[in-house]
């Protein structure tokens, strides 16, 4: 039995991990954060890296350490019914409801939208999203080939294209980081703002969704023993995650430097388009279009594959093909809502589900100590759900937050939940749940 991967195989798996994670939000959110954080970008970027690369990496390791085959098995430690509901909701969020539509709308927003008249945007977006997801469907038909499609071809192509643009941007910078303007939300709490911005990448959620694909590809390369699979997933994951961190940092610095030439934009896609055009003109726009479309396609292929396989296992009465096609059709329709609208709608949902994902990852990491103590999993999860509810309310549009009912709930949370205003109130609540769960478990064992 094979005991370890070769360096070449490890690089391929690392490339697969990077390719699965790095999609639309990974391009547009760091550069937008750079524009908003200005000279405080290093603090904001540090917070962003914790949730943007730290949590996904821990998520990959958690699967190996908890000996869980997939998200359903891991989340079922809370309870079978919770496992089914949480797995279903998470895959809908990172699949057809938010992440996949955002991949298509981001590609369109950056690659085509700047060159089209206003009155043709809607019909062109529909046609683009149709062909985008047609390609996704074509590559999603054979999930066993995903390492070849993403790890060996699409990711290397994407990296060559992206670094071509980044090298130009840093050889001849648009401005300097020092002295660049700082938006109000980044003046006093840049680190915590960057931390919560990392939620938007969806990568901690993706780690839970892609765990099965990563583990199976390592097994297909000849590693069968669970402890060795976990070890190789950690080593390969480190390669992919470090690469993501480097690119995040370069993009966020580019965003801050761009303020020396461009004004603050409403999303990072617009800034990225302006940067490419500034350096290379029409050729830059073509290069950026290729970068974005390749980045989004490879992640969309991974998401549709993971969605189809998971739903086929959860609800076996329907086939993998049925769920994959349904996912792609729904994502095509939602993509036509528009990029800014998708981001705005998804934020409250992410603020609710992200803490639940993070606590699940952390409990998976400490599986050696927690084991299958269901009381611990239940107390941590249900109390975190309570904190996540208030975080979701706090991320609603200002018009909704001004209502008497919502404002009174938010006032209660800011008074009684530590770190709530920083978006980290779930941490103390989850710790409280851990203590309560351990005490209940200890009492049961003594009685």
From TrEMBL:
It is found in: Cell membrane. The keyword Transit peptide does not apply. It comes from the Bacteria. It is a multi-pass membrane protein. One of its GO terms (molecular function) is L-valine transmembrane transporter activity. The chain crosses the membrane at residues 46-66, 82-103, 123-141, 153-171, 198-215, 236-259, 279-308, 320-339, 345-367, 379-396, 416-440. Its main location: membrane. The keyword Transmembrane applies. Keywords: Amino-acid transport, Cell membrane, Membrane, Transmembrane, Transmembrane helix, Transport. One of its GO terms (cellular component) is plasma membrane. GO terms for biological process: isoleucine transport; L-leucine transport. InterPro entries: Brnchd-chn_aa_trnsp_Livcs (IPR004685). PANTHER family: BRANCHED-CHAIN AMINO ACID PERMEASE BRNQ (PTHR30588:SF0), BRANCHED-CHAIN AMINO ACID TRANSPORT SYSTEM 2 CARRIER PROTEIN (PTHR30588). Component of the transport system for branched-chain amino acids. Belongs to the branched chain amino acid transporter family. This is Branched-chain amino acid transport system carrier protein. It comes from Vagococcus fluvialis bH819. The lineage of its organism: Bacteria, Bacillati, Bacillota, Bacilli, Lactobacillales.
